[in-house]
Amino acid sequence: MFLADIFVDMALLRRHKYVITLLLIYWPAIFIATHIPVPLLARKSGMSDKTMHFLAYLVLVFFWWFTISPYSKVNWRKVKVWLTLVVMVWYGAFDEWLQGRVGRSADVMDFFADLSGTLAGLVILTIFNFWLGSLTVTVIFIFTISNLSRIDLIWELPFVNTGFHFLGYIILTLIWIQNMHRHIISTTQKRRHVKWLLTASVFPVALLVIVKLCSVGFGKQVWFMDCLTAFTGIIAAVLTSYLACFSYSEEVT
Length: 253
Fold this sequence. Notes:
Elements: H1 2-33, H2 40-44, H3 49-68, H4 79-99, H5 108-127, H6 130-148, H7 158-180, H8 189-217, H9 224-252
Helix pairs in contact: 1-3, 3-4, 3-5, 3-6, 4-5, 5-6, 6-7, 6-8, 7-8, 7-9, 8-9
């Protein structure tokens, strides 16, 4: 039991380091993106800049929160939440002000989109822990990019659409597996393996189907290669995780 607690603590510390690293990469990246001429990908994606701001701050507040409070959900009675709001409000205002000084347009509606993304992230993290929060943010991101942008029409950059579907659904599947892994309990080893594979696959595949059905509702064309690419990413993540998980468990036993 003592050794198990040590390994859990090490895993949590490692997760915290990953989140800090992602924040240190992501925040400068979005700062640079908002202070240079609008990138070709953004102009041709067909996505509203307000939606981009919402998603950018939704992800930013997620990384920020689990950097300053790595192991707890949002509690509105704690100072950390209001500190987070102050930081995001002041950064959003400064970001818009500075854009007006570097040839980009400063837009108060962009600021409100930033604030909306921040509040949405805090609400999600009030309800869910790290892994469920990660899953929720990833689902929102995939659904929004898939249905409110036209990256499938950026013919000059065909790898963008393929990469989004492949990597997006790999990340989604890996996060889902982290959420469901400890709840897999079976009476026999064979049933345990089958149940694990089915449970690991069903949610990502169901989401893919739902997203593409909604795409039809939004009047977007559904491409077979997008579905195949996403499905390939799901299967790759499931099989890789399966081999890693059960190979490790068999070595331990």
